[in-house]
Amino acid sequence: MATTERQPGKASPRDRLLDAAARLSYQDGVSVGIEALCRAAGVSKRSMYQLFDSKDAMLAASLERRIPWYEAQLAHPDPGSATPRERILYVFEQLARASLDAGYHGCPYLAVLVELKDPEHPASVVARGVKEALAARFRTEAEQGGAREPELLARQLVLVFDGASARAGAGVERLDDGLVMATVTALLDAAGVRQA
Questions:
Q1: Which sections of the sequence are annotated for DNA binding (predicted)?
Q2: pLDDT recorded at residue 103
Q3: What burial class does residue 58 get, using C-beta atoms within 10 Å of its C-beta: 0-12 exposed, 13-18 middle, 19+ buried?
Q4: C-alpha–C-alpha distance, residues 60 and 159, integer Å
Q5: Block means of pLDDT (10 residues each) for the chain, length 196 residues?
Q6: 9: helix, coil or strand?
Q7: From CA 74, how far away is CA 157, in angstroms rounded?
Q8: Region for residue 12 given its phi and psi (left: phi exceeds 0; alpha: psi -120 to 50; beta: otherwise)
Q9: Residue 155 has what pLDDT?
């Protein structure tokens, strides 16, 4: 899912830094330099260090701030009337839709985990929490949909989500050809997730 930014204008230096961190780390990777972040935000390095203990802390805060938006992108617009199966499929429809954006570079949380490789890094902790929440969401939907092995299905769905996201983000796969939806549908059928 692509990143979002607040409208320029009255944004505080903290918000401008978090927006710059979100945009540049998604676009260029987490190794983006402090000077580039500060320049993009229009904030001095001194101010940045008054607001954040480190670049790592700023990156983690940026990821944390995006969680509500990220989760909202994957939430079915009418969850009360949708079946668990429809809510699962909607997540993948949104992934396919997001992947068509020219600025799409894959799941920002997966990218952080892959790039940092340090499970104790503050940004890795936030990113891992988001991925665990997605797995929990899939597990809950699988249970409600009558899946024989909800835990296994949740793991499979996260694997498809992350794999499809990474391949589309790298530009080696298009997600609008139906392959992802067919794969997820096959997993749901095999697990016994009810249609209604």
A1: 33-52
A2: 92
A3: buried
A4: 23
A5: 53 94 94 94 95 95 96 95 97 96 94 94 98 98 98 98 96 92 97 92
A6: coil
A7: 13
A8: beta
A9: 98
Residue 134's φ and ψ, nearest 5 degrees, are: -65, -45
What is the distance between the alpha carbons of residues 54 and 112, in angstroms, rounded to a whole number?
17
Nearest to 194 by CA among 157, 137, 146: 146
Helix axes 13-28, 55-74, angle to 10 degrees: 80
Residue 105 and residue 99: Cα distance in Å, rounded?
A: 8
Q: Which of 102, 103, 97, 107 is nearest to 176 (CA)?
A: 97
CATH topology of domain 60-191: Tetracycline Repressor; domain 2 (1.10.357)
pTM: predicted TM-score of the whole model, two decimal places: 0.90
Alpha carbon distance 121, 58 (integer Å): 12
Which of 195, 26, 51 lies closest to 111, judged by CA?
A: 26
- 85: which 2 tokens? 């199966």
Here the tokens at position 78 are 């009418």
